[in-house]
Amino acid sequence: MEKVELLVKNGEVWTPGGFVETDIAVNGGKIVALGKPPVLPESADTVIDAKGKKIIPGLIDTHTHHRDPGFTHKEDITTATMAAAAGGVTFSIGMPNVNPPTTTVERYRALIEHHKKNAIVDFNHNPSGTVPEEIPGLAKEGPLAFKIFMVKDTGRDYPHMPGIGINNNGELFKCFETVGQTGLPLMVHPHDQDLMDEIEGRYWKREDRSPQAYAKAYREFDGIIWDTAMSTLFRMQKALGAKLHVLHMSTPEGLAMLRRAKNEGRPCSCEVNPWAMFLGTWENVEKLGPYCLGFWVPPAHVEALWQAINDGTIDVIGTDHAPHTKEEKEKGWKDMWSCPGGEPQIQDYLSLFLDAVNQGKLSLDTLVRISSYNAAKIFNVYPRKGVIQLGADADLVVFDPEYRGIISVKTQHMNVDYSAFEGWSIEGRPSVVTVRGEVAARDGKFVGQPGRGRFLMRKPSHF
Ligand SMILES: [Zn+2]
User: 268-302 pLDDT, tens per residue?
Assistant: First the structure.
C-alpha cells in the first residue's frame, strides 16, 4: 500500500469482539486498512505511535447543549466542540433549547449552516418535537431524533423555555405519534409537572428555596416526579410502537420499566448522565450547591445505575453538557429555583469513566459500548461512526490508561470558568483524538480547526 494520510501504530484497538493489536491506516478521513506491515504502509503524513496505549472509537455525545444561537454568553458551538474534542468526543448531538428554539425547518436550516462554519467535531441537532405540523418537514432535514422536555420551568424561563416543553398528556401523545411516523426516536426529558408543582409548593410555603430543598424536591418519594412521567411515556410508547429514548435515567423504578419494555422487544433505550454517576451525592449538594446541578442521586440509586450499566439496561452516556455562567449559578445559593439547572460535563467525562474502569465499576468494553457503539446503532449512524473497522470514519481516541492527573478549570476549553469536578484526581485521559483522520486534540488540548466539523445526517435509506 502506498503512503497514507494517517497511520496509528502499535496500539491495542477496541473491536466488538475484544481488543486486538493492529495498526490503523487512514485515507480520505476513513479507515482504509487494519493490520501490520507489509499489509499496511510504513509511512504516512502523520504517524501516531500508540505503544502502550489503547484505541477506542471517538465518543458520541447524544446530549450536548451547544447554547448556540441565543445563549453564546454561556457557550457557543466552537467552544462546546473544542471541549468535546479535548475530551474525546468526535460526534456531538445538539439540543433544541437554543434561541430561537429549533421548532421549524427554517430555524433548523439556519442552525445547521451556522454550526457547519464553526463546529470542530462532527455534529447533528435534535429539533424540538413540540409542533406536530412541523415534524414531517423537520424530519427531512436529517436529524437523528426529536426532543421534548416534559418540563415547564417555574421561577425562571431557562433552560426550559416556552415552546419546547409539553406538560399535557394529550399534546405529548400527538407529538409522540407524529415523531413515530417519521421512524425517528423521540428523546424525552421525563418530568411530572403537576406533581412537581405540588411538591415544590410545599418547600416554597416553608420559604425554603435552598439548593438542598431543590435537590430534595426532585428526588422526593424516591424520585416520584421522574417515575410517574416515565410510566406515562412507556405506556404511550407501547400504544404507538414508536422509538423512545429516555433522558436522565436515574431511578430504580425507571430502570425496571425500561427492563420490562426491552424484554418485550420494544424499541426503548435510555441515557445516563455523568452527573448522576459521579456528582449527585448529598455531600456535593451541600458543598457545591447550585454547581451540583440540583439533582440529588442517593447511593442506592447510583448503585442501581452501575448495575444497569453492567447488565446492558443503560444504552448510552449522554453528557447533558449544559453550561451556565458563574453569575447565573451564584443566584442559586439564595434561590435555587431562579438558577438555571445544568453543568458543563463534556470535557472530563471520559476521564471520570476511565477512572471508574480502573476502580472496577465497569469494564472498558462496556464503557466503549455506552460511549459510542450503542449510540451509533440507536441513532443510525453505524457503522460509519461508533466502531473501528474498514470504511468507518477515522474517529479515534488514543488513550493512556496509566495517565494520572487532576481535573482543573485551567485546562478547560469550554466558555465557562468553573468545573464542579475541580481538583478531582483521575486516572486515564485521551492522548490523541482524531476526527475523520485529522488530529483534533493532543493531551487534553484542542488543536483542531473550527469549521472542520461536518453535519452528519441520518441515512437517506430511512425515507
Ligand atoms: Zn439536557
Answer: 999 999 999 999 999 999 999 999 877 899 999 99
Which tens digits make up the pLDDT trace of 120-134?
A: 999 999 999 999 999
342 CA → ligand 1 middle, Å? 7
Q: Which amino acid is at 388?
A: I
What per-residue string of b and e applies to 312-322 under the rule 16 or more CB within 10 Å gives b? ebbbbbbbbbb
How many angstroms is it from 350 CA to the middle of ligand 1? Answer: 18
pTM exceeds 0.90, yes or no = yes
Residues 326, 417 contacting (CB under 8 angstroms) = yes
Question: If you measure from the C-alpha of residue 100 to the centroid of ligand 1, how many angstroms do you get, rounded to a whole number?
Answer: 17
Backbone angles phi, psi at 214, to 5 degrees: -60, -45
Instruction: Indicate the residue type of 265.
Output: G
CA angle 195, 200, 205 (to 5 degrees): 130
Asked if residue 46 lies in contact with residue 5, where contact means CB atoms within 8 angstroms, the answer is: yes
Q: List, as ranges, residues with CB under 5 A of the ion ligand 1.
A: 320
CA 320 to centroid of ligand 1, rounded, Å:
4
Distance 271 CA to ligand 1 centre (A): 11
Residue type at 78 in one-letter notation: T
- Given a contact cutoff of 8 angstroms between Cβ atoms, the answer to whether 11 and 57 are in contact is no
Distance 400 CA to ligand 1 centre (A): 30
Ligand 1: centre distance to CA 6 (Å): 35
Classify 383 in phi/psi space as left (phi over 0), alpha (psi -120 to 50) or beta: alpha
Helix (H, G, I), strand (E, B) or coil at 352: helix
